Amino acid sequence: MKNLSVAGDGTKIKTFASSYGKKICSCEGPCNHPRIFSDRDARWGWDSFHERWVYGYGIHALVEVKSELPLILPKLTGANTHDGVVGVNLIREAIRWATG
Ligand SMILES: [Zn+2]
């Protein structure tokens, strides 16, 4: 445990659902009829690595530096959640796990 080096990182995952929903009527142009939203937990978020907006999810993980293996189960959030927000909870969870 003394030589344990931990790093935290996250990545964005795009959903294939549309943030505008899917049309269920047969109107040709734009209309105000109800639409189906098939992925209601997905959110818009900024992918700072690829420098683009992503509609979907964020996966956040703590890994052991040498092996790059996850220390605890990664957390799934909406893409609008910053790594720093989840990081605090991941660190707290890892300490709880390591100290029993
Ligand atoms: Zn319509």
Commentary on this structure:
The structure is a single chain. The chain has one domain. It is 17% helix and 35% strand. The strands form two sheets. Strands 1, 4, 5 and 6 form a four-stranded antiparallel sheet that branches. A two-stranded antiparallel sheet has the order 2-3. The protein has one helix spanning 83-99, and strands at 6-14, 22-23, 35-36, 43-47, 52-64, 75-78. The longest helix has 17 residues, at 83-99. Strand 4 and strand 5 (52-64) form a beta hairpin. The protein contains one helix and six strands; from the N terminus they run E-E-E-E-E-E-H. The chain has 100 residues and is an alpha+beta fold. The site of zinc ion has 4 residues, from loops. Residues 25, 27, 31, 33 line the site of zinc ion.
Distance between the termini: 13 Å
Provide the number of structural domains. Answer: 1
The total of helices stands at 1
SSE string, helices as H and strands as E: EEEEEEH
Low-pLDDT stretches: none
Please state the overall shape, judged from the principal axes of the Cα atoms: elongated
Question: What small ligands are held by the chains?
Answer: zinc ion
Q: Indicate the radius of gyration in whole angstroms.
A: 18 Å
